[in-house]
Amino acid sequence: MSETFEEISAGDGHELVVLCADTEAGYRSVIALHSTALGPAIGGARLWRYDSTDAALTDALRLSRGMTYKCALAGLPFGGGKAVILDGGGATQDRVQLFRAHGRFVERLGGRYITAEDVGTSPADMEHVLMETEHVGGLIDRSGDPSPATARGVFRAVQASARHRWGADDLKGRTVALQGCGHVGYHLARELAEAGASLVVADVSAERAGRVGTEFGARVVEPREIFDVEADVFAPCALGGVVNDETLPRLRVQVVAGAANNQLLEARHGDELAARGILYAPDYVCNSGGVINGCRELLGWEPERSRQKIEEIYDTLLAIFRRAEGEGVSTARSADRLAERRLAQAGTE
Ligand code: NAI
């Protein structure tokens, strides 16, 4: 038997963390279930080249926790989980075997975890997962590419931030510095341009940045310059950890609202944004449109129901902004508290 499935104690309040390996399939992963208090843990499977198993573990823990909070604040009957698959194979890796192995480990978890596509994985990979388990979402021709839905949610987050900061949703004449012109960034740029905002964009892919420049009249800057742009809003739609000791003093914006997961490198960076008077729209609220869109597939929702729920990101954020002011804490901490309260309530129902 080439498979191993080892439960480890990771601390950090996670319900279950397992190290999985199938040597024949060249598969190694960490599957982290942060919480199933509100329902089965959902979260994508990320395929990435990690420097070590520890680095993969850290990513899985952070991302699964984020999924729990995201679902709790979106009011969805799901908990948070994440699978990170260590990419060691290169071009010769057999994806069918890799994702069938993933499916077998998901199956072992007996429905406590529902996997899906994420960075480095695709709907086609999920079809291979489906050969071994039913606990998989993000399949071809089901709820479709989540990016436009995610972008719509981020757009609503920008509007809510504008309302809180400047007293009106209207983005006409506002400038947004957008980092990352990929799947979500492109659609967000479109929504912002349609709303009359001016755009300054950057992407490590000159082609992607150029496309947004051409189609939406955006000014394109070098990737390293995006943090220095004088704008009303900074919208990170590329990587995590972009708000950190190095970038914070450079930001010349009044709002940070974007799609990237784990935008704050550390929790204290949320406090520092608040101390500098920059309104931060917590990332896992902004980007919950993707998972809400997935409810069409997972819960059989009508498209209109998902659309409506995504619009509500606006109201959720306004409530968080007000609570943070009342509590005298950063918006990031206030959102965490609200999510934790919902989880605690679920535990006592
Ligand atoms: P993507 O991979 O399509 O786009 C990311 C873009 O960022 C790429 O064009 C890439 O070239 C660019 N990029 C990478 N490093 C950069 C840098 N240093 N400076 C400037 N640009 C850089 O990814 P996608 O799907 O658009 O997601 C964007 C972010 O939103 C990710 O953090 C993702 O985890 C998060 N997210 C995405 C969801 C979705 O529905 N696609 C749902 C929830 C979160």
Which key phrases capture this entry?
349 residues; alpha/beta; seven-stranded mixed β-sheet; six-stranded parallel β-sheet; binds 1,4-dihydronicotinamide adenine dinucleotide
Shape: globular
Ligand identities: 1,4-dihydronicotinamide adenine dinucleotide
Overall radius of gyration: 20 Å
Largest sheet: 7 strands, mixed
What's the order of the H and E elements? EEEEEHEHEHHEHEHEEEHEHHHHH
How is this structure best described in words?
This protein has 349 residues and is an alpha/beta fold. The chain contains twelve helices and 13 strands. Helices cover 43% and strands 17% of the residues. Strands 1, 2, 3, 4, 5, 6 and 7 form a seven-stranded mixed sheet that branches. The protein has a six-stranded parallel sheet with strand order 10-9-8-11-12-13, with helices on both faces. It starts with a strand and ends with a helix. The radius of gyration is 20 Å and the shape is globular. Bound molecules: 1,4-dihydronicotinamide adenine dinucleotide (NAI).
Helices and strands, with pairings:
Layout: E1 3-8, E2 16-22, E3 27-35, E4 41-42, E5 45-48, H1 53-74, E6 79-86, H2 95-108, E7 113-114, H3 123-130, H4 147-166, E8 175-179, H5 183-194, E9 198-202, H6 206-216, E10 219-220, E11 233-236, E12 255-256, H7 268-275, E13 279-280, H8 283-286, H9 289-298, H10 303-311, H11 313-327, H12 331-348
Parallel strand pairs: 4-6, 4-7, 5-6, 8-9, 8-11, 9-10, 11-12, 12-13
Antiparallel strand pairs: 1-2, 2-3, 3-6
Helix pairs in contact: 1-12, 2-3, 4-5, 4-9, 4-11, 5-6, 9-10, 11-12
The protein binds 1,4-dihydronicotinamide adenine dinucleotide.
